[in-house]
Amino acid sequence: MKQRKMAMVVKHVDMNEEDASDVAYWLNKTVSERIGEVTRLRLAYYQWLLGDYPQHIEKSVTKRKL
């Protein structure tokens, strides 16, 4: 049997703490990094769903004055 080179680590985290750490993680990223990740996820999703990225995606975000 092969011996592991790296020890397995498990960290139990409360769900509320996990949400807070996720928010903190993304707030530490630049805007371009966040947009890049959303773009990567969108591309991966459409390739999984349709097998190809669509030529046109319907606009789903609108700007409103606050």
> What can be said about the biggest beta sheet?
none
Radius of gyration: 19 Å
What is the total tally of β strands?
A: 0
Average residue pLDDT: 85
Describe what is shown at a glance.
This protein is mainly α and 66 residues long. It has two helices and no strands.
Kindly describe this structure:
- By secondary structure, this protein is mostly helical.
- Helices cover 50% and strands 0% of the residues.
- It starts with 14 loop residues before the first helix and ends in a 16-residue tail after the last helix.
Summarize the topology.
Elements: H1 15-27, H2 31-50
Which labels suit this protein?
mainly alpha; 66 residues; 50% helix
